[in-house]
Every structure is written in structure tokens, then in C-alpha cells.
Amino acid sequence: MNAPLPPAEELALIDRELVQLDSRRLYLLARRDWLLRLLQQPGPAPVPWGAAVPGAHGAPGGPAKDASAPGAQNVLLTLGAVLLAVAALAFTLVSWGSMGIAGRSAVLSVVTAAALGAPVVLLRRGLRSTAESVAAVGLLLTVLDAYAVYAVGLPDTDGTAYAAGAAAVLAAAWAGYGSALRGLRLPLPAAVLAAQLPLPLAAAAADAGATGLGWALLVTAALDAALALRLRMAAVPAVLLGSAALLTGVARSWSADSAGGALAPAALLLAVAALGVAVAWREPRAWGAAVAGAVAAVVAVGGVARPELTGSVREAAWTVVVHLLVGLPLLAAVRVSALPRGVRRGLAGGGALVGAAGALVAGSAAAVAFLAPVRVLGEVWGAGSPAAMPYAPVAAVPVALLMTAGAAWWLSRALGRSEGTVVAVVLAWAGLVTAPVLLGLPMAVVLVAQLAVTAAVGVLALRAPGRGIRIAAAVCAAAGAAGVSVGALDGRAATFAVWGLLGAGCAAGAAYGPASRPVRSGAGVCAVGYATGLLVAASAAAELPVSRWSLPVLAVPALVAALGPRLGVVRTPVEIAAACSVVPALAFAAGSPTMLALVLALAGVVCAGAAVRPERRTAGWAAGALFTAATWVRLAEAGVTAPEAYTLPVTAAALVVGVLRRRRDPGASSWTAYGPGLAATLLPSLVAAWGDPGWLRPLLLGVSALAVTLAGARWRLQAPLLLGGAVLAAVGLHELAPYVAQVAGALPRWVPPALAGLLLLVVGATYEKRLRDARRLRDAIARLG
User: Fold this and answer.
1) CA-closest candidate to residue 724, choices 763, 685, 780, 765
2) pLDDT the model gives residue 447
3) 591: Cβ–Cβ under 8 A, 6 or more apart, which residues?
4) pTM for the complete prediction?
5) HSE, side-chain direction, 13 A CA sphere, residue 290
6) Considering only CA atoms, which of 353, 354, 359, 351 is closest in space to residue 333?
7) Nearest by Cα to 591 from 535, 549, 556
8) Are 752 and 744 in contact (CB under 8 A)?
9) Least confident range of 44-48, 249-253, 720-724
10) Contact, 647 vs 680, CB < 8 A?
11) Neighbours of 150 (CB within 10 A)
């Protein structure tokens, strides 16, 4: 083979061509993969691989666009339509008078026809957005045409009546226009909006009154509801106008002066009810219409009876009962399978809404009656007769509460849900516990009846199967017990009888094993509270001084501490409640230091007795604190001001405890065993010594601190060594302070800075050795006990 090039050059050329071929092969493989992905994914074809994107930064297409073409088009069309509308208004209102009748009519007619006809051509060419804008201008021009006809041809016609007729004509014309041009979206909503005006405006023009206006609103809402089956946009005005008709009927019904005057609003409300049920019958998802219809029917019937029951507060309350008698039977719709689901749900919801409103109104009156006995707190065990009720007895309130309770219970059973039963328990309790007060019965009868209701609901809290029912019954029982307890303060005999029965009942509930633990615990706490209250009442009845009331109260924590483990699962909450009863005992004894010290000491004895049991060892700390407080009160009463008299007993007791702790647990830290006891005396004495000008206290404190320090060094205990040494150094500094001050005053002023500088130089020169000595001292202290 003859080669025109030398072998070396030809080899280099071949190598370069092979490299180019490899690069071309890689490019073609990548191009092939991109084409395969392009064929597999749907949608418009992407930009060719490797080509520059038009419009991207740095690409030949130019800078990126901030707005898309359709968005810019819509903005331009909207601005154009607005400008045309403004021009039309200016022409009609400003330039109208400068032209003749023929010219004005011709201009508006030609412009309106052009604006309404142009969308036909535009839609054929696919310019939908432009067609919408021009059509909007055309619809506005029709309104101006109607105004022009009124201003020129019918100036003496009633404006409201003409507006009603014009709205009807425009609604029909716009509806036809929109039906003819299906590509336009604006005419049909505009027609629906215009169709809301004719009947209300006609009623206003005819002076039909509020009821007539309500009928107009209702008929319009009915037409909207029928239209909503084909056009969903009509559902919104149907809801709004139907609600307006309902509110109009309710307002007229409640403001009627007689049953005859309430008949016309009742007819309107019944028509609203029929419309609501019909809508829910046709469209199950619109069950809210049936709710409104049910409420309208209840108000219609109750409104006829209302004027005959408003002679007084007592009679007005029966209006609630009448509405409940009409509304609560609607709950039975949940069992009528022949009705559509939407109607059943709506009627039952309306009945539930009426029941909730009735319960709210009756419950507010019941709350006033329930809180009425609070007036007794102004004069406990008063000698006069009970104050008169601030309102007349109203039997309708408990009747309404019991009716709603029964309805809630029935609905709960019908639906298989427990929430209704919980509501029924609360409502029934509220009705029964306030019935004696609202019926105006004597106070004795009221207390007996409320005790019986409280006992019944308490038993329900103990034995009810459901957790929610138990909690609701327990809350009702607690509230009832509080109410009857306050009411019983009106007389001494009533206080002892009611509080004794309630305390016994709570104790029995706490001992009832099958009941839930929270309910039993609550009953036990209440039993402790009633026992405390009875002892206070007995002390007051015996006319003892207030400071001595605390001694009988201490019997409660003593009894609880004695029972101890026999209390079972309620032991902890009962013991906490018993401990809280010590607070009023201390408050009663606060006026007498001698009695206060005695009460503190007795409370300490109770805690010490409880601490005997292994599981209540922590009560020993409370006992020590109480004994200490009792000692301090006695010392303060005796006029003792030396701090050591207060702290030394604490130190002695704490050191004994520390010694026992170290014997039982040799690994216990000396800070835990001896630190608190030593600090209790050394630190207060040190503070007193610094302010004592005499020599005896610093001497005794220094000797004591020296002994503590030597003891810590002897037995290698860290706490005594450091505490004793620190106090000893402080005492020494206190004794040397006057002399140091004298020497410092006699020295020239340059001497202290010079000495400080010299000290720094020495420390710096021997830094490493001092640091090593400090580490050795730290390790030696750490090795102490």
C-alpha cells in the first residue's frame, strides 16, 4: 500500500478522524434517545433538541414575555368595553339634549343593533373574547335604551313600576339573545340577574307592604329554584331571595298584635315551607332548603298562638312550649322511609334546630333560677324570711327543658347514637332541679326536691353504662350539690340536714366499687369537703371563737390518715383533699399565735402518723416542716429574736436524719445527708454575725465552724469541710476587717496597686505550678465523702 504521507503523520491523522467519528456517534445516539422520548409523550411537540428556545433569555427569540397573549388580549378587550360603556353613558346623560328626537333614537338604535349584531360575526371568526366584550356593551346599551324610552316617551309613568316592567322585558330579551348565541357566556347570567327585580319592584310600586314584598321575593325564589334545574347559576339568587322571604315572614309574624294579624305572615311562611320541601324532594343534596322550610312551618303555627300568650312573662314563656310542640314532632321524619333522604334529613334538622333554640331560651331562664339561692350568702343563717324571687314563677321553663330532653333521648335511640342521651341527661337535670324554684314552692320543698334530683343523677353517674353519660351525670350531680348546698345556708337545720345527707351520699359513692375510678374519686373529694363544712358549721353553731374552729377541722385529715390503705383507689385524691382542709384550719387560727402553733403541731402529728407507712414516707418531710413552723410561731410569740433559736432545732433534727441516711446508704453524698442541716444554722448565723457589733456571736460561730471543719477533715466529708471552712474564713475576715481598714487607711495610696501588681507577677511566674496545685486540691476535695 502506497501512502502519500509519512507513517507518523498518517497515524496522527487517522487518530483525529477516529475521535471525530466517536463524537459524531455519541451525538447521534443522544439524538436517537430524544426522538424516542418525543414519540412516547403526549401533548404539543417540544422545542427541538439542542435548539435555542424563542423568547428565552440569551436566545435569538428576544427577551421573555411578562404576560401571555390571551391575558393581554383580555385586558385590552375589558378596557375597550369599559371605555365604550363610559362613552355611552356620557352620550345618554350629557349630550342627549343637543339632538332631536329622531336623531337620538336613530343613534341609540343603530349603536345598540351594531353592538348586539357584531358578536354574531365575531363568533363565526372564532373571536370569542372580543364577542363577549362587544356583547357586554350591547347589553348596557339596552339598559340605556330603556332609560331613554322612559325619559322621552313615558316621563309621567311611575318610575318603580316602569323599572319592574323594563327589568322583565330586558330579562326576556337577554335570555333570548343568550339562547340564540350559545357561544356567549354573559347574556344568560345577566338575564337571571335582571329577572330578580320585576316582582319585588312591582310589589314596592303597588304598596303591597312587607308581606306582599315577601310574597314577591318568594315567587321569584321559586322561579329561580325551577330555573336552577337547568342553570346552576340560578341557585344562588334562589337561596338569597328565599332567605329574605323567610326573614320577612318571621319578622311580620313576631310583630303581629293578634292571631288574625299573624295569619297573613303564617301563610307566607307555610308557602316558604312548601317551597323548601319541594326543592329538597327534587334535589336531595339541597336538604338545607327542607331545614329552612321546617323552621318556617314551626314559626308559622307558633306565630298564630304567640299574640295570645304575651300578656306577661309567665305567659310569654309558653310561646317556647308551643313552638316546641310543633317543631319536635318533625324529628320523627328520620323514621319515615317513604320520604326522600334529603327531605327526611331536612325535616329532622329543622326539628333539631327548633329544639336547640327552645332549650337555649329555657336554659337561660333556668340558669337564673338555679343561681337565685346565691342571695343567701349575703346573710348566712339569716333570721328573716327568704327574699322574694326576682321574677314570677314560670312553669313553662321546666316543661320546655323536659320536652327537649325527651326529644333528644328519642332521637338518640332512633339514630343509635349516645350523644343525644348525654344531652337528654343534662336537659332533664336542668328542668327537674329548677322546677321547684320556678313553680314557686316553699324553700323546704325546694331543698327536698333538689336533693332527690341530685341523688338520682348521682346514682346515674355511678351506674350508667356509657362513659359520656357518666361524665355528664357526674358534672350535673356536682353542680346540683353545690346549688342545694348554697341554698341550705338559709337556715341552720337545713345546713346540717342537707350537708349531712350530701356528705353521706358522696361517701357511699366513693365506696361503690363497680363505679368508674374518676367518679369515685370525685365523690370522695366531695365527701371530705362536706365533712369539713359540717365541722365548721358545728363550731359556728356552738358559738366557739373563730380561732378554735380549726381544731375540729383537723379531725378530717386525722381520720383520712388513720384509714389509709382502706380507702382503696380513691386514697390519693382523698388524702390530697384532706391535706387541703388544713389550709382553712390555719386561716381560722391565724388570729391567735398560740392556737396557730398548736394547729401546726397537731398537723405535724397527723403527717408523722401517716409517714409511718412505707408508701407515705414523704409525709415525714411535711411533718418536720410543720413542727418547725410550730416552734417558730411559739418563739416569735415569746419575743425571741436570736436566729439560732429558730435554726438549731432544725439543724439537730436534720443531722439525725442525715446520720440515719448514711447508715442505711453508705454511698449517699455528704451534701444530701448533712448539707441542709449545717446550712440551716451556719448561714443565718453568719449573716447575723456580720451585723453584730459584739464579740460573743462571732466567737461562738467561729468555734462551731472550726469544729465542723475538723469533723469534716477527720471523717473525710466534703460538705462539713467546705461549709465549716467557708464560714470560718468569713468570720475571720469579719474580725480582721476593722484592722485591715485601718492599715489600708494608713498606707500611701500607691501601695495597694503596687502590691496587686506584684501579686500578679508572682502568680504569672509560677502559673503552671499553681495550676497543678489547684488540680491536686480539686481532686483531693472530690475524693472526700
Assistant:
1) 685
2) 92
3) 546, 547
4) 0.69
5) 27
6) 351
7) 549
8) yes
9) 44-48
10) yes
11) 16
Grid coordinates given for 263:
295569619
- Read off the C-alpha cell for 209: 307592604
User: Among 247-261, 380-394, 681-695, which range has the highest average pLDDT?
Assistant: 247-261
- Per residue, what are the HEC states of 433-491? HHHHHHCCCCHHHHHHHHHHHHHHHHHHHHHCCCHHHHHHHHHHHHHHHHHHHHHHCCC
| Angle value at C-alpha 628, between 572 and 687, nearest 5 degrees | 130
Q: Where are the alpha helices (DSSP H) in 153-208?
A: 159-180, 187-194, 198-205
Angle 659-664-668 (CA atoms, 0-180°, nearest 5)? 70
Burial of 197 (0-12, 13-18, 19+ CB in 10 A): middle
- At 427, list the grid cell: 336537659
Given a contact cutoff of 8 angstroms between Cβ atoms, the answer to whether 347 and 294 are in contact is: yes
For residues 303 and 266, the answer to whether their CB atoms sit within 8 Å is yes
Residue indicated by cell numbers 441542709? 676
Ramachandran angles phi, psi of 409, nearest 5°: -65, -45
**Which of these ranges, 119-133, 568-582, 710-724, has the smallest mean pLDDT?**
119-133
Interval 88-101: pLDDT, tens? 555 554 455 555 55
What dihedral do alpha carbons 453, 458, 460, 463 form, nearest 10°? Answer: -150
Residue 262's φ and ψ, nearest 5 degrees, are -90, -5
**Higher confidence at residue 450 or residue 313?**
450
**DSSP 8-state code for residue 545:** -
Which value, to the nearest 10 degrees, does the dihedral of the CA atoms of residues 669, 672, 675, 681 take? -150
Q: Distance (Å, rounded) from C-alpha 739 to C-alpha 440?
A: 89
Which one has a higher pLDDT value, 87 or 581? 581
The amino acid occupying position 716 is R
